Amino acid sequence: MTNEKHPVHLLTPLDNVAPSIHLQKHLYIPARDDPSALLTTLRDALARTITEVPMLAGCVGPNATGAQRGSLLVEGPYLRAGDILLVKDLRDMLMLAQVYLLHGGLFLFVAIAHTVVDERGLFNILRVWSTRCRGGQDVPLVEPHWTDRKALMQQQGKALSEDTIANLISPEGEPTSSSKTISGHSVMQSTLPPSSVGPAVFFFSNSSLARLKLAASATIAGQSSPWISTNDALCALFWCSITRARAGESSDNNIITTVSYFNMMIDCRSRLLPPLPADYIGNSVLATKTHATFGYLLSSDPSRLADVASMLRTSLLAVNDTYIKDLIGTIRSAPNISSVTRPAYPSFQRNVACTSWANQAYYELD
Fold it and tell me: Could you give the C-alpha distances from 169 to 89, 281, 296, 313, 365, in angstroms and in order?
């Protein structure tokens, strides 16, 4: 029955034969505002949205009085915005797992504190969980070395100066400054205006990757170039291409001298001597740091791709046993640990970060 409080919305034939699933969008929204204010904004805006589209607050069910069996409709009970918007404060929890039951399956949400576990560690934890879901309860999976942090607690690298700390931890040292010194040269830093961004998938055939690697491995006159991987070549291409796209949208006169940083996240487990176990779940990921001016990255010099790829490879090689132990020594020597806490890597529309979860085959765990 239709009434003003609980109206019924009949669905069309096309609605009735659409897949019986929930469409999903998982959005991460970075924000530093007061959480209560953010939640109030989200909840109030959702309430206004429901006022404009009232059926969003209803429930989908069978049309028991319809002439056609199996047809669906939207009816009450109608929910409030506060019932639809579920809030869970994760800030002080080490791990949270939540399941949303949907038509056609379920959505499993897992969050874990990055201060305790890195991406590879999270994958190993979910690997144990998925194995237990399939049975095999009597087979031990977790070894003591998974959580044994002594190897990193006992490292005794040299403590570096305070001036070096920010340079090691942060991709730019002090990112709020509009000017800085790079390799002895004073440069201006431009924060470019936000542009329209979105996800994209690029496919490179094996033959095109081979040609790209060959181009990026070209010998630089008068220099002995390091071995270049296919990933180095791809990253060099992306860095130059992204920089060119950003420069094309800017009218800033300082754009040519603006410095761009390229940060590549790398797993350091195998870079320590002796190496950490592959199953160690604690944090063992650091970022390389390569910098170049926009003018350098935008150069039409035929050797530019090889130059940039060589710079990226050199930065990767620099993260070795000595570097990691010195970094640990620096952190251990700081009177206030917050002075060396790694911030989020800001883009400022000029920096680029690269990471890969290609080896974290989550959907193969089932």
Answer: 28, 21, 25, 19, 34
Mean pLDDT in residue range 3-29:
72
Record the tokens describing residue 277, joined without a space.
């176990």
Q: Note the Cα 220 to chain centre separation in Å.
A: 34
- For residue 258 the two structure tokens come to 């603006």
DSSP calls for 302-344: TTHHHHHHHHHHHHHHHSSHHHHHHHHHHHHH-SSGGGGPPPP
Do residues 235 and 220 touch, judged by C-beta distance below 8 A?
A: no
Residue 353 identity (one-letter amino acid):
A
Instruction: Identify how many contiguous H helices and E strands the chain contains and give both numbers.
Output: 11, 11
Token pair of 345 as six digits: 């890597």
pLDDT tens per residue across span 62-82? 888 878 888 888 888 888 988
Of the candidates 78, 104, 81, 108, the one whose C-alpha atom is nearest the C-alpha of residue 95 is: 108
Tokens of 216: 């990026």
Radius of gyration of the chain from its Cα atoms, rounded to whole angstroms: 26
The pLDDT, as a whole number, for residue 161 is 60
The alpha carbon of residue 104 and the mean position of all alpha carbons in its chain are separated, in whole angstroms, by: 28
- Ordered structural domains, the chain, with CATH: 9-91 (no CATH), 150-357 (3.30.559.10)
Q: What is the mean pLDDT of the chain?
A: 79
Grouping H, G, I as helix, E, B as strand and the rest as coil, residue 151 is helix
Encoded amino acid at 68, one letter: Q
